[in-house]
Design a protein that fits this description.
Blueprint: E1 3-5, H1 22-37, H2 58-71, E2 79-81, H3 88-96, H4 116-119, H5 125-139, H6 160-173, H7 190-200, H8 224-236, H9 257-270, H10 287-295, H11 338-341, H12 344-347, E3 354-357, H13 363-374, E4 378-383, H14 387-399, E5 403-408, H15 414-427, E6 432-435, H16 450-477, E7 481-487, H17 499-518, E8 524-531, H18 545-555, H19 564-575, E9 586-589
Parallel strand pairs: 3-4, 3-6, 4-5, 6-7, 7-8, 8-9
Antiparallel strand pairs: 1-2
Length: about 600
Amino acid sequence: MDTFTSPLSEPVVASSAYGHAEGGYIDAFIDLVADVTRYPRDILDADADLENDLGIDSVKRGEIFLAARRRFQLADELEVPAEAFRTIRSAAAALTGRNRPVVALSEGRDRPVEPVLAANANASADLLNQLTELVAEVTRYPADILLPDADFENDLGIDSVKRGEILVAVRRRFGLAEDFQADPSDFRTLEAVARMLSSVVAPIAALAPDTPPAGAIPVAEPTVLSRLKDIVARVTRYPEELLEPHADFEDDLGIDSVKRGEILLAVRDEFQLSTQVALNPEGFRTLEAAARILEELPVPKNGVTGLRHGTAPATAQAVPAAAAAPVEPVRPNHRRELTDIFADNGGRPFAGKVALVTGSGRGIGKDIACSLARLGATVIVNAFHSREEGEQTTAEIVQAGGSAHFLWGSVANPQHRKALFDAIEDLGGVDFFISNASNGLIGPFDRIDDAAWAKGFQTNLVGLHQCALRAAPMMARRGGGKIITLSTPVSHRHVADFACMAALKASVESLTRSMAVEFAAHNVSVNCVSAGAVYGDLIKKFPESDKAISYWTQKSLGNRLVYTQEICNFINFLLSGAADAINGSILVIDGGITIRL
């Protein structure tokens, strides 16, 4: 039986934050587990099984114990059963059972936390408190974990995109110019940011949250052009430095008509334009052209400088809503050759798109995620049991020049789903959702029990349905999107050992058709890719896999199985918009195997 060895040392002073009660120990252990695993604190239920519910393996539980030994000042002699570290509550009970108080978390750190004022007298407590509040708002982290010396990236997992959002929020909160830039070394911790601000901003002890301080760096009133640049950067998620005033949205930046429509909607909202003011999309080809249109509107909007009184030009004249010409429901890609579509942006046609691929730590899911990244999409890699592999997949994508974020969680768990899609909201939404996560028993018919059905149904059906319900409205706000589900041709046939999975995947196909109808109003298409036997690690886990591979190879019309890149290519075609008339379909890619089964 596994054991963790370590008795309690001499009694130490209890933390006022946690006290002596078991509840205090539970809070302390939740903080500790969150630090070690980097899991969101709100999913760490005290009674959740660390391995089965949270996917924390024995190695990681060992790390948790080592961290507990340091933080709670435990020595090295006494043996503690591994079962005591199955849940957070049982770990807390192991300590309280020895009737020892627990030290403050800050006292158990490897080095003492120096007060920020001691490190730099110019960084006032008020300034640090305001920065803590601001970072908590941007990241949605609990303020109590935002320690002054915690490294944004290494300790808190705040990536460069989120740090950019923090910088924008700092500019606004403290009245800095829009082009103000901070040295990366000054933007590593709250303490460093406070020191930096204290050197460039006048004393702000009495600063109201949204009021620029007296004596702060003068801020020019935003121009129409600068506000347009902010809008386009927000809608497309392009870096602002790419958005040159004269750059053509479509030809230079790859912003299609759908995305330009989103920009127009955002412009109407930002400049408070009436729906009766017609804005010709063709006039919005560049930032310069769009700014000229807005500047010539007859009435200044929202106090923006540069808008002049006068007669509205032809591109922005007031017209009755009923007189607007009908718009042909055709996207650009509907009439383009595939070679042209996939040549966009230097072979990155999905630039500006965000794709969620569940179950993408390994196998087919990983291949799909990497393929989308190579085509320019920002990929949200999601995994549960394969957390470390998911993080590795993300690192590989970034190292190859792509863009990716890793979000841990199980689609079968309601709390995990909420945290997953809340994080996606913070990233700006999603355009593509590839539902690859799956769970189903592969084995003899008489081994399928209640637990197997419950687990498989929760992942394959409930998880898919609930994730799609969160994703579709996000896609609608970005002009529409696409959902791809995955199935198998054996869902319509009898294949030994596949009864459970076949029934679950048949349900996925049925749900796909329903979602296609329900989400049409969101401009979201839904299709299912039904993949036959595929080369890879997964097929080797099947019962008598060598015999099965030989059988399926003989049945294939090409005497081979399917390659994962072929599945990726098929999915990429569906996502490209080249054939949006394919909707609610179950599309088989199996080399012709099922024709002869």
